[in-house]
Amino acid sequence: MEGNAKDYKKKILEVAMPKSEEDEHLSKQKEYLEMVNEYKDQIKKCQMKLEVPSEEKDEEDLIFTDGKIDYNKNNSEQVISHGLKTQSKGIDVAERMVKRIAEADDMANDQLVELDRQEEVLLRINEANMEIESDMKRAQKYLKYFARTYMQDK
Predict the structure, then answer these.
(1) Is residue 151 scored above 70 in pLDDT?
(2) Are 16 and 135 in contact (CB under 8 A)?
(3) CB-CB contact of 57 with 86 (8 Å)
(4) Nearest-angstrom CA–CA distance, 101 and 111
(5) What are the pLDDT digits (tens) for 52-61?
(6) By the 8 A CB rule, do 28 and 121 touch?
């Protein structure tokens, strides 16, 4: 039964939709697919940006014992310099994270706007389909009426 309904709707659309509208819908579909691919590329770029860069090696010759800085064997300038560089790296990482979050937020907003636009298009298409379906029902009633009238006239 479901297959018959699908075939019926397909036939209705073939009959009811002019070729120019069908071409227009196909071109819009291609545009949407291109936009989806662009969004996928943007997502890939953002994911690549989010990868954490490898840590740079400290240029100073600090002496470590059991994975920790040995304060007895390093002078205070080396330890302070190491601390400042570590702090600077942390600040840089935090700033990059804030920028990436802002970029991701902008992308999300753009995608939401695009989705809203696409939803409006789909609603308009649905309305057109409903009108076509209504017209087809009305035409079917007229055909039945004409057939009955024709049969009664015999």
Answers:
(1) yes
(2) yes
(3) no
(4) 15
(5) 444 444 445 6
(6) yes
Whether this model's pTM surpasses 0.90 = no
The pLDDT of residue 23 is: 77
CA–CA distance, 62 with 71 (Å, rounded to integer): 9
* Two tokens, residue 94: 């935090």
Residue 61 tokens read as 């010759």
DSSP assignments along the chain, one per residue: -HHHHHHHHHHHHHHHS-HHHHHHHHHHHHHHHHHHHHHHHHHHHHHHHHSPPPPPPPSS---EETTEE-TTTS-HHHHHHHHHHHHHHHHHHHHHHHHHHHHHHHHHHHHHHHHHHHHHHHHHHHHHHHHHHHHHHHHHHHHHHHHHHHHHH-
13: Cα within 13 Å, side-chain hemisphere: 14
